[in-house]
Every structure is written in C-alpha cells, then in structure tokens.
Amino acid sequence: MKKLLLLLLTALALPGYAQTKSILVLSDVHVNLSLGNTNSYHLDADSTLFLSAINSVGSQKFPFIILPGDMLWHEKGPIKKHDTAVMKQTFKYVLDHLKKLDKNAVILPALGNNDCIDHDSSDRATNALFYNAMLRPIDHNHAIYRDFMAGGYYKYSKGDWTFIMLNTVIFLSSASDPGVKAKKELSWLGAALQDAKRTHKKVWMVYHVPPGMDRYSNTPSWHNNVENMYLDTIKKYAQVIRFQLAGHTHMDDYRLITNKGRLISYIDIAPGLCSRNGNNPAYQVIQYNSTSKVVNRVNTYYTDSLHRDWHTFAFKDFSFKFLTSAYDPASVEGKRFVENYFTNRKQKKPKEGEQIIAWDPRFYQQSAIKIK
Length: 372
Hints:
Layout: H1 2-13, E1 20-25, H2 47-57, E2 64-67, H3 84-101, E3 106-109, H4 124-135, H5 143-151, E4 154-158, E5 161-165, H6 180-198, E6 202-206, E7 213-214, E8 219-220, H7 224-237, E9 241-246, E10 253-259, E11 262-269, E12 282-289, E13 295-303, E14 310-315, H8 321-324, H9 332-341, H10 361-366, E15 368-371
Parallel strand pairs: 1-2, 2-3, 5-6, 6-9, 9-11, 10-15
Antiparallel strand pairs: 1-12, 4-5, 7-8, 10-11, 12-13, 13-14
Helix pairs in contact: 3-4, 4-5, 6-7
Signal peptide: 1-18
Keywords: Glycoprotein, Hydrolase, Signal
GO molecular function, one term: hydrolase activity
C-alpha cells in the first residue's frame, strides 16, 4: 500500500502531469484615487471598490496576473489629457496592491486607450511612462523595452509559454488609419508567432480593444484593413494560439474567429471593474491546463454598487455550439450568455443610437468574426 501511494505521489510530481492552475485578470479598472466612496454605478472605480476586489481574491496564488488595459480613470472635457504625475501614482498604486496579492506572480499589463497621456493616442511619451511604471520589473534582458518603445507591444516567455501583448489602441476605427504602424506591429506579431511555432511554445495573446463589431454602436471596432491583416495572421498560426484575451467594452463577452464555418480561435473579452458602461464591477479568474495551456473554465466574480458581497458564475462551453450552429431563439445557453453579459445586472437604458442587447439574430451574428 505504501509503495502504491509513493508511486501515485511521484506521478503527480512529474512535469508532464496536467494540473489545473489559475490566472487573475483585472480589466478596465479605471481607478480614480481622488474619488470618495461613491457606492454608485456609471462611474470610475474608487479605491473602496478596488480594495474590495483585491480582498475578495483572498489568498489565491497565480503564476501570472494579467491586466488587459485601462487602469487609469476617464478624463472629462473636450481635451482628454492625463496628468503624468497622477498617472505614475495610479500605476504604482495598482501594481503595489497586486504584488501584495502574490509577490511571486508575474504581472503582465497591456496598454489601453485610457492609459495614454493623450486619450486614444499611443505615442513615445506614453510608451516610456508606461514602461517605467509597469514593465521595467519584468524586463530582464531589455527586449521588452525595445519592442514596447517601438510600438507599445511586447512578448514575455516562461518555459514553453509565450504571452504576446499587443497594442490595439492604434487599430481603433475611431482613430486615424494607423497604416505603417499597423503593418509594422502585425509583421512583428507574425514573426513572434512563427518563432513560437519553431520553438514549440504555446501562445496567449492579450490586448485591450478586441476586433469585431461594437455591440452598442453597431460599428467595427478596428479599421477594416487592419482587421483583415490580423485575421490572415491568426489563420496562419491558429494552431499555436491557445487563448486570446481583451477588454475595453467592460462586458463579459466573447468573439469567435471562424474560417469557412469552423472555429479556429476565440477571444475572451473580460468584464471591467469600472461600472461606467452599466455593468456590475467584475474580474475574472481563468483556469487552464498547466501542460497544454488550454483554458477549461472562466470564473467571473462580480459585485453590486455597495461592493460588499462578491458572487460568481462560470463559463466552460468552449465549443461555443450555441454561437456556431444555427441561431436558435429558444437557446438556453444563448439567453444565459446574454444575461451574464452585464455581469448579472439588467441592461441600463440604451443611449440614443445604441441597440438593445438581447439574445437575437444580431447578437448571434456579431459574436463571430469571419475570415473572408
């Protein structure tokens, strides 16, 4: 009996043995340290909400903590420009508290459109400030500095795992056409994925603004030509990409990348801690297979405006059959998916020009990004 127990313990310790591990995801935090305890929706996160989220995580340990962008507050007025001193203070505040959660976790932030000195504008000054505040601690060979200063993107590798952190702020359809910058970044992405394929690494891609349609405005999120270049790259390297993660919308959502009706990759759009878009404040804990790096469960934790109690729901239907088969108006999975879209909070009254979010053909169709 003792020999059998010893063999079992040895087997569990083998490197090839698959275990389920977790990664913490905090997106669209938008923490405003000047706010008091607001206990209100449609505002940036105050420190009370931020600390409530941190405390709710508890003693869980994570090899990585991922921030898909927008840690900073929303600037108001026609000229949206952040104070650089307050930017540095806020970045430090977020980083310090995350380090207290798990001092051994590697913290991987992506650049968001509200993390820029000038709103929606990723320039060299923003890149330098963001690098010094957030990326310097993980840049051990100066490679992150070189790539990030070139365009706001970088990669981080550990063992057989590579995280590719893109700058999709420049891809925004509301901004001027990025042209040369986009081609340079997507060329870099292709080279990074080719290197991962050659060295047998598994890849997670992380960025702020997801491709596809904006559900509220019913308009494309990215410039069309940029999205087509990105889709060509995903099609070529889909086999090495295990997971894609984005933020920006504040909603718990997914985008499915399909080629001739076949799902080849998907994007988890993480909900925001900030409730500005009418969502409940939320964060995610992503469970994955430690060998394959394939995600098997996404746990979303959410709270109400009082920030006292945190609740959770899980998503694990990564076949996405309710979104890839024919539209079924009676689909239980589809209806539940939309209910969780606002992290279990009823939709706020749509603004003029916004569509009502419901399980209908439009929601179904906008979930897919089809490669042409």
